[in-house]
Design goal:
Radius of gyration: 33 Å
Oligomer: single chain
Number of helices: 6
Structural class: mainly beta
Organism: Phasianus colchicus
Number of domains: 3
Distance between the termini: 48 Å
GO molecular function: RNA binding
Strand content: 35-45%
Helix content: under 10%
CATH architecture of the largest domain: 7 Propeller
GO biological process, one term: positive regulation of rRNA processing
Number of strands: 55
Protein name: WD repeat domain 75
Subcellular location: Nucleus, Nucleolus
CATH topology of the largest domain: Methylamine Dehydrogenase, Chain H
CATH superfamily of the largest domain: YVTN repeat-like/Quinoprotein amine dehydrogenase
Strand order of the largest sheet: 6-7-8-9-13
Shape: globular
Length: 804
Amino acid sequence: MVAPAALRVVRCGGGALHGARAVFSVGARQAGRFLLCASGDFVKMYSVATEELVRLLRGHGDLVTGVQLAPHNHLQLYSSSLDGTIKLWDFTDGILIKTFTVGHQLLALYALPASEDSVFVIIPKRDTYQLVSVKLTKAAGQDMEAKELSVVLEGVDASPKCTAFGREVYSPLGDWLLSLLFKFSLRATNKKGGNNVFTCVACHPHEDCIATGHADGKIRLWRNFNHKKEYTFSTLHWHHDKVLDLAFSVEGTSLLSGGVESVLVQWHSGSDCKKDFLPRLGSAIEYVSISSDGTFYCTSHTDNRITIINSNLRFSKTIQGLIKARDIKTGLVVDPRTKALVLNGEPGHLQFYCLQSDKQLYSLDIVQQEYIHQAGLNQSDLARVAFSAQGKWLATVEEREETDLELQLKLWFFDEETQSFRLNTRISMPHEDHVTAMCFRDMDEMEDDSLMLVTTGRDCVFKVWVILEDTDPEGNWSCDFVGSYHGYQATNCCFSEDGSLLAVSFEETVTVWDSSTWDLKCTFCHPPGKIRTICFGRLTCSKYLIGATDHGFLCCWNLLSCALEWSAHLNVVVLQPDPLSEYIAAFSWLFKESSLFVFKPNEPRPICIQRKFCKERIQFAAFVPRDVPETIGSEKYLWLRRSQLFFLTDTQELMTVSTKSLEERLTLSSKQLAVEESLPVTPFSLLLGKHRQQQSQEDVDLGKILLHTPAHVLPSASFLCPIFINSLLVSKENKSVEEAPAEVEMESEGAEDDSDEENTVTEMKQEDIMPTESLGETTHKLSKSEEKELRKIRKTDYSWISVF
């Protein structure tokens, strides 16, 4: 008997692309060059020419902290991780060559050409950090122990930007690399109030020159430091805040610097007067990288973006991952059209994040105001977002709190022509206080009568918004009903599956309303504690209403009997129903660990319990429908068959749960790369593959297409009749009528057998070759005119029918 697969927590995407310095592969052409960067537990390889994700290197068990090309084989890559291992990859084929277990957390990685069999790493030691050299053995085998460590320097900084290696100096007595260490000292603050704290360091590739960045925005170039007490430095100053990273060009003729201003500065010949700028890069620059031939620059940004820049400071490409917003107020919402996750992005923007490609699809500007990067300013930001069932309507709430609260409710309509959302209605101050929840009811979006929006607020009311018919063909939204309950604050709202009931929680009480007459039907209460979240059951469990209180109770009420069905003592922080099944996922938080419980409302015993599966608090969760149902071997995990569960932690790590092992968890792109000899997957290739699949099914689905297409858009029956007859003919794999020589007569294999069974077999084998006996009847042989007509039908192009 095969043991059921265990449920694994996987970092599915959204990893920080700016966690370590990115590196360029060595290539003669732009089309054959790649950018390799750390992203969570993975190493990602992007195409410089197309910015597409080409390969995902999996294998580390914790955060990847460094990537470096192997100095003596540019087709191989070293990567370090907090899991205490160094891995050697053949990144072009995605093959893991070796794993070196060091046994310490690795915070940074450096690979030098002079050290062929060793690398340098930064490891923790009590309250400080060490720069050590790790000996990499060349013995046979894939998993190796690398316990031979040599301490190079004590008391270094944990940041990889604060350690740099300069040009190589060899001793005339041998091939030993000389370690030249110098100490420069500056006062923490100078007489003018400048902050001299070091933030980053870079070494000149050919000269004895060191560049240091400081917290006051100054850059210092240190020279003559190989003479005792005679070192000199010059100062470059443009940044108004701390310098975040420095990098010399390949020839050393220029210096690149980046900071919080989102501007890449290029200093020429170490002069304060000669500098060029590339502004408006979006967010603060964390790392600056340069290709080995100097033709490309790369900047990694705090908003999880990588920008590829030409050497003449012209923008080339951008790779945008999941933006880590300062505060996620909208939660995780699924766009019904694209199945993308929608949440806060840049200030005042909604980001649409594709889970399959781990990239941002696009960003929608909601606030439509210029954001000022200055601390202490209260600026408008997104607080709530909701989609209608088919994604036709989008509702957003933005708020700004100065002396008085400013609120705006905006309704956006999806324009099919422009394939984007267009602002339809703007409502100022929809509530007198903060909006706490928002949801749509849309049983049939073709009828505007069924479409309505409900908002709840701290002003102790909930409001119902509907579309008014006026001169605008799309209609404008207006308030239709205002409800309240004993002056309590309204905190949550949700509609039943059929839209006939609306549940609104008012502090400790849940109220149920008739959505057609707005009559209060019943109330539920389970003291002590206020209602934290509510949801209706679905499908066979639609008669149940589930709620969680902030005092640690999970309750299930029966809407038919208006009584409590069951309750459980559980501190639920997130309650998420699956839109395609009866299952509901509940995340609890206890003793600084998160647990997962999956249940059906009609069964008080959970179907799946995963205790202490995450040491971070879960903020939000969402079920995303799968394109193809998953094959699940265990009944315990059948709730993962039609939808996939994603959740966001308080550190904004996007995770999911999976029953597949590491080898089985291949993305669609990885599978296609393996089939097509590791060629990068482009949107055109995916579109072509989909077209070929549709074309192969055209004959099978033709009858269905004809029957399901509206009659008023179909051509005449005389034109469709040959198409339908042609779809019923045998496939081209069998021998056609015209290919059989007319002068050759073949004798049936079952001519001498009177058995009906053998006659049937003979008919199957000799189809379209000669007349055969079946049930005592002889099929008529086609005449030459009939064969000519048949050839004409087959040559006719009926591809236009596929559009229907």
